[in-house]
Amino acid sequence: MPYNVDAIFQIAGIGIIVAMLHTVLKQMGKEDYAHWVTLIGFVVVLFMVVVYVEDLFQTIKNVFLFSS
């Protein structure tokens, strides 16, 4: 279960892109679209984090139950 920093960079990259899109859309007066972009970006990152948390809980379960 060696974690690399790729996931952190992916989440940071998504955050930067979403922030830029939100700013551009808000400057253009499309605030509804800006909010939707932010919400979709949040959901994508949330699903990514859920996968890693599930893996973490599975590893903790395996360690404390001494099973493989």
TrEMBL record:
The chain crosses the membrane at residues 7-27, 33-53. InterPro entries: Spore_III_AC, Spore_III_AC/AD. The keyword Transmembrane helix applies. The lineage of its organism: Bacteria, Bacillati, Bacillota, Bacilli, Bacillales. The gene is spoIIIAC. The keyword Protease does not apply. This is Stage III sporulation protein AC. Keywords: Membrane, Transmembrane, Transmembrane helix. It comes from the Bacteria.
